[in-house]
Structures are given as C-alpha cells and as structure tokens.
Amino acid sequence: MRALVWHGKEDVRVDTVPDPKILNPRDAVVKITSTAICGSDLHLYGGYIPSLKSGDILGHEFMGEVVEVGKEPGRLKVGDRVVIPFTIACGHCYFCDHDLWSLCDNSNPNAEMTAKVMGQSPSGLFGYTHLFGGYAGGQAEYVRVPYADVGPYKVPDGFSDDQVLFLTDIFPTGYMAAENADIEPGDTVAVWGCGPVAQFAIRSAYLLGAERVIAIDRVPERLAMARDGRAITINFDEEDVHDRLMELTGGRGPDSCIDAVGMEAHGGGSVDAIYDRVKFAAFMTTDRAHALRQAIMACRKGGTVSLAGVYGGVVDKIPMGAAFNKSLKFKMGQTHVHRYLPRLMKHIQDGDLDPSFVITHKLPLDQAPEGYRIFREKKDNCIKVVLKP
Ligand code: NAD
Ligand code: ZN
C-alpha cells in the first residue's frame, strides 16, 4: 500500500510499504477514506518529539471502512464505516474504567521506556513515535486498529467524511480544553492560537456556556475564522496581548485561559535542545513558547489554565510564582477521545456545529508532503488539510 513515511526532520515521503495485517484477536484492518494532518504531526515533522524511526508511518486523524476483523471483533463487522480515536485504549484497565482513555495502562507496548521519561506511561497513540507504542499511523491506504472492539465508532447514516472526520481528534480536543476550563455562565475565556484545535475550543467554549471568547493569533485568515465563531480577536503581532486582555476584562483577566498552541515550530529548537539545558533555554524564549507564560500571567486570580497544546519535553521559565500566588488551577493532557465521541456526534446530528468548516485543503495522499509544507508554513490560507488515499 501507499503511506506517508517519516524519513527524518522535515523529510516525509509517500512510499510503498507492506499492507497491515491482523496481529491480535481484537484487531481490525480499516481502509482509509479520509485522513488529516494535525498540529501534533508538525511536532514530528519538525523533529520536536524523540523516538521516531525512519520508516515510521504518520497520521492519527483518520476514518474509513472495516475490511478485516480478528477473531474477537466485538460489535465491529466488515463493511462498517467508522471514525477512530487517535488514542488507543484497551477498555478494561483502571484508567479506561475511570473514563481516562488516553491514560490506558495496556495499549502502550513500550510502557517501560516511556515511564523512564514520564514517570508512568500514557496510552498508545497512532503514528506518534515509539514513546507512544510505535503504532503505524493512518496517513495511508490501510491501517491496523488494535482494540478495535473498543475504539472505532460507527458513523450514523447521512454524514459525509468531512462532517465526522474531526471526531477522531480536534473536535474532542477543543471540547475537552473548554471543559477543562471550568466555564461558568458569564465567563470570559481566552484562547491562545487560532489553529484547528483552537477553532474547536472557541466553539466548544460557547457550547459550554461562555459569555465571551477572546482568541489570539497572528495569522489573518485564522483570526477571521475565529471571528466567524463569534470570538473577539487579538493579533499578537499588532497588539500587546496582556494589555489588551486586561482592557477587555476591566483589569481582572480572563476567567480561564486555554493554550491551544503547544511547543511546536517557528522559533527554532530541536529534540536535542530538549536534552541540552542551554539550547533549551534559548528555545523556550521564542515566541511559540510564550503562549503558556502569557496565559498564566493574564488569567484572573483563582482562574483555570487549560492546556490542549502538546508539550514534549521539559518546559522552562514557567512563572510558578504567579501561578501559585494567584491560586491558578491547571488541567491538561492528551484527549480522552472515547469519552467525548457520542456526545459530540449528537452535537453534529443536532446541527449545533458542522466540523467541516475548518477544512481549507483537500489533497490526494500522494501529495501529503506538500500538505505538510503548506500547513506548517500556513501558505495559501491553509488551516486544515485533509488527505484522500
Ligand atoms: P497549528 O500549529 O495549526 O495551530 C497553532 C496556532 O498557534 C497557529 O495558528 C499559530 O499561528 C498560533 N500561535 C503560535 N504562537 C502563538 C502565540 N505565542 N500566541 C498565540 N498563538 C500562537 O496546530 P493545531 O492543529 O491547531 O494544534 C494546536 C496544538 O494542539 C498543537 O500543540 C497540537 O499538538 C495540540 N493538540 C493536542 C491534542 C491533545 O490531545 N491535547 C490533540 C491534537 C492537537
Ligand atoms: Zn491530531
């Protein structure tokens, strides 16, 4: 089959690779009909997350048709049309039982190695390095889905791929970021970033009762899309973010602050930098990094800082004194996609939100390397790229 393969930093290619096979009784093989490129893929593309190997297949936002099932398929049948959470979960461990699916104890075969870096191991993820299990991703014609009796969610009739694809990651991720922001009626929520995840965080904050959302970025099309979602926007190239937030909130600061930027791209740095204190300090003073610092400094006393943006290593220069003395709460993590899927499908069915609004580019899988480039460079007004195998 054809698949998007990582060969090194900023070097991804579409190669012919062996077809995936059923390895375990609870596996399925899915023929991909749509797959997207995520901001998290840019961390891999830019070489920010260690433990990728040349030859690894990327991609964690995908959907398609079940073409093969193992001996214990559960409710899944050949021919089912499914969306697949990017987090892999066994469905039966302590964490799955507690609705904490991205922390599953059994789905990361490299748990021992990961625990050395993180203390304990989170779940396996598709296409996201050997720290998260080394699973082949879904920017491909076919993918093996482990624990397929637990994750894949059957798409109700009448919905296009474009309408449901983002249930695999960015809609639940934006939603969980908003839920983690502990929104109360009347609240003002500030969102750093206007990328795809942020766009869903903005709309989810309103679904969860925010009075007002303020969104921060520098890319004009992304700011415009945030305004379409009823956000007030701040262009951080043109205005001082902190001052403007204080002005908009009568000097008190937003009730909660969502970081939908993460550590990625722009300001330099590399995986090596994460392990080198001096280089890392330089990396952390670049613009991408200070979204989180700004969020901590601007958040009102007693407020909540919610992180959807991904962090891969050690973050330096976090103003802990401000966080402590303002009694801030922090919530974060990889999204518990399984938890949100039915709820968000219902929002789509009820017409509250059509997630396809975020798509700006559709390319054949063979043009995936170009897709990575334009998404990373934000060329050609690119906000979200969908690949069609
Ligand atoms: P993206 O890279 O397209 O969007 C990031 C946006 O942040 C860009 O529009 C950029 O211009 C903006 N930005 C950069 N520096 C900024 C700053 N200092 N202040 C304000 N805005 C700034 O990526 P995306 O797909 O929207 O993903 C966003 C983040 O969410 C990434 O870190 C990604 O890894 C993460 N993510 C997390 C999960 C999860 O489970 N928690 C899932 C998916 C994605
Ligand atoms: Zn993603």
TrEMBL record:
Pfam family, one: ADH_N
CDD domains listed in its UniProt record: FDH_like_1
InterPro entries in the record: ADH-like_C, ADH-like_N, GroES-like_sf, NAD(P)-bd_dom_sf
Organism: Skermanella cutis
Keyword Zinc carried by entry: yes
Protein name per its UniProtKB record: Glutathione-dependent formaldehyde dehydrogenase
Domain Alcohol dehydrogenase-like C-terminal: 196-264
Domain Alcohol dehydrogenase-like N-terminal: 25-152
UniProt keyword annotations, A-Z: Metal-binding, Zinc
Annotated transmembrane regions: none
Cofactor(s) the protein requires to work: Zn(2+)
